[in-house]
Write a structure and sequence with these properties.
Layout: H1 4-14, H2 23-31, E1 38-48, E2 54-65, E3 69-78, E4 86-92, E5 100-105, E6 110-113, E7 141-151, E8 154-163, H3 166-172, E9 174-182, E10 188-195, E11 200-212, E12 215-227, E13 230-244, H4 255-260
Antiparallel strand pairs: 1-2, 1-13, 2-3, 3-4, 4-5, 5-6, 7-8, 8-9, 9-10, 10-11, 11-12, 12-13
């Protein structure tokens, strides 16, 4: 569990003005949000094209967080053309360490490490790219609080995140992002992202969330890509059978574990 959230929450309660208008402090609270020590869930990824044709993919997802690194491994279980594909990510708490990602392709019996230059590419044909699969490094963005408002009746901050350099923009794939953050749980519930592709924008929205064992969990979300103002593609993510803080085998979260797949 990200225990830093406990310290930050206490500070936030005792000094209610601390960080309240500081966008970087707000983003630090977003990154420190409690997601549990471990989790397992089933996921459905639905890809929707311009003709509204849908393709569905089933995923088994596992997470383990020891306070220094949050590790996630995802195994695609259906349909047949992606069955056995695995994705492993290590998200380091220490900002000086670069997060790591690997993709296992069973047809090639090969694991590819995702290079920084490839993180702007689509994740498994979805509207999410590889950089979306990790928490943002606070040092890589300049943050501005542009307004406050409401989303679905809940108070939010709206923060603009702009990469500090062109290299970071190329790595993430985004020129800038407007992030809508709920004040009660520090969850990003909506985002508008301007990509490096001229005229292309992405819109993320959390459609449903639940409290499981005291932890806020997004259970339905979508990412929609629009090009020149028109619908281009959409990805729907549905999460179910969620279990939090259960025993987990650390060996699952290694490259060899990724290649073994679900046992």
């Amino acid at each position: 569990m990200k225990k830093i959230i406990l310290i930050l929450t206490v500070i936030f309660v005792i000094f209610p003005l601390f960080g309240e208008s500081d966008p970087r402090e707000i983003m630090a609270l977003v990154n420190a949000r409690d997601t549990g020590d471990s989790a397992v869930s089933d996921m459905e990824m639905v890809l929707v094209d311009q003709q509204e044709r849908q393709r569905s993919r089933s995923i088994k997802s596992y997470m383990l967080d020891d306070g220094e690194v949050s590790r996630t491994v995802m195994f695609f279980t259906a349909p047949g053309d992606v069955r056995g594909t695995g994705f492993l990510t290590w998200d380091y708490e220490e900002e000086s360490k670069d997060d790591e990602q690997w993709l296992y392709l069973p047809a090639l019996r090969k694991t590819n490490r995702i290079a920084g230059s490839d993180k702007s590419q689509s994740f498994m044909g979805s509207d999410f790219n590889y950089s979306d699969m990790n928490a943002a490094d606070l040092n890589e963005f300049n943050y501005t609080l542009i307004q406050e408002g409401k989303v679905d009746g809940q108070d939010v901050w709206v923060i603009m995140a702009v990469p500090v350099s062109r290299d970071i923009a190329r790595e993430t794939g985004y020129e800038k992002s407007a992030l809508f953050i709920r004040k009660d749980n520090y969850m990003i519930v909506r985002a508008k992202k301007w990509t490096l592709r001229s005229g292309e924008e992405k819109f993320m929205q959390v459609k449903e969330m639940r409290i499981i064992d005291g932890i806020w969990i997004p259970t339905r979300m979508e990412m929609t890509t629009r090009r020149n103002g028109s619908f281009y593609h959409q990805t729907l993510l549905n999460r179910s059978n969620i279990r939090i803080n259960i025993p987990m085998d650390e060996n699952m979260f290694t490259v060899s574990g990724l290649e073994r797949g679900i046992q």
